[in-house]
Amino acid sequence: MLPILLSIWGCIPEFSKGCVDMSNASSAYLGIMAGTIIGSVVSWWIYNRQKKTSDSQDNILCRIKDLEENHDAILKKLADFDDKHESSLNAINELNQKIDSILNSNETN
What we know:
- With about 110 residues, the protein is an all-alpha fold.
- It is about 85% helix and about 0% strand.
- The longest helix is centred in the middle third of the chain and has 85 residues, at about 25-109.
- The protein is rod-shaped and about 135 Å long.
- The model has no long low-confidence stretch (mean pLDDT about 85).
């Protein structure tokens, strides 16, 4: 079966015994086949590398998104803490002023 298929392409001495020299047509067909195989392998390799890189970038972007969400939550908690701290500080200052006014009124009496 293979010799019949190869005889359509022309004389290929590596595959048929009665051939002395490879014909131009068989040389062209063999070059096209080899180029197709090599091109397919290189294209697959490039596609595979790009897919791995793309997957890695997607994972990194998801991680960055998670970190940004955590960062926003922490900033909100810090803002709430700052508001509570500010109100506590204001209450302490009011008490301090009241104590000072009471002490001043007792000293004058």
